[in-house]
Amino acid sequence: MSDYTIGIDPGVTGAMAMIYDGRVVRVDDIPTYEHKVGKRIQNVLNAALLARTITSWCKGRNVMIWVEQTQIRGGSGRTPGVTSVFSAGRTFGIIEGVIATLGCPVQYIHPNVWKTSHRLQKKTKDDSIARAIELYPHAIEDLARKKDHGRAEAILIAHYGAVAALLAPV
């Protein structure tokens, strides 16, 4: 059983959170940089900074990382575009590759599983923030912005992993 649990909400608007002893001890947005593609500028995952961050979080600690298993689906009757599907897959693959290269133990969790455990099926991103604050009121400053839903979901994924570790048979 691990002492520290890291939750990762993948994606360029995602985040990472680390829980220890019932407290959120670290939370960061997924590191990105701006990349020009034609006339557009898009955010791209910064793999080097991600690797440095995960290394610093894991160094000298007994850690288990839980990553949301990416799923690509359209919403409101629309199909996601090729570019967004490629971008999401690329980001997930980089996260998976960084973790594997660092040799960190990892579990992948389907979003329906952790969301069901928090009663967040068919709920809004604001509901994820409210649930994370309910569980970890001391993390309210890390969840102050509307765009901090990725941080909230990373906290909730880590919480799911920490509880799952406690309930796992020895």
What's the topology here?
Layout: E1 4-9, E2 15-20, E3 23-29, E4 32-37, E5 40-45, H1 47-58, E6 63-68, H2 82-102, E7 106-109, H3 111-117, H4 125-135, H5 149-167
Parallel strand pairs: 1-6, 6-7
Antiparallel strand pairs: 1-2, 2-3, 4-5
Helix pairs in contact: 1-2, 4-5
Task: Based on the model shown, name its key terms.
5 helices; alpha/beta; globular; Nucleotidyltransferase, domain 5; 170 residues; single chain
Query: What is the total tally of β strands?
Result: 7
Main sheet?
5 strands, mixed
What is the strand content? 15-25%
Approximately how much helix is present in the residues?
40-55%
CATH class term: Alpha Beta
In whole angstroms, the N-to-C terminal distance is 8 Å
**Inertia-based shape:** globular
- The neighbouring-strand order within the major sheet is 3-2-1-6-7
Whole-number mean pLDDT: 87
What is the structure about, briefly put?
By secondary structure, the chain is an alpha/beta fold.
Could you walk me through the main structural features you see in this protein, from its secondary elements to its overall organization?
This protein has 170 residues and is an alpha/beta fold. It has a single domain, classed as Ribonuclease H-like superfamily/Ribonuclease H (Nucleotidyltransferase, domain 5, 2-Layer Sandwich). It has 5 helices and 7 strands, in the order E-E-E-E-E-H-E-H-E-H-H-H. It has a 5-stranded mixed sheet with strand order 3-2-1-6-7. It has a two-stranded antiparallel sheet with strand order 4-5. It is globular. The model has no long low-confidence stretch (mean pLDDT 87).
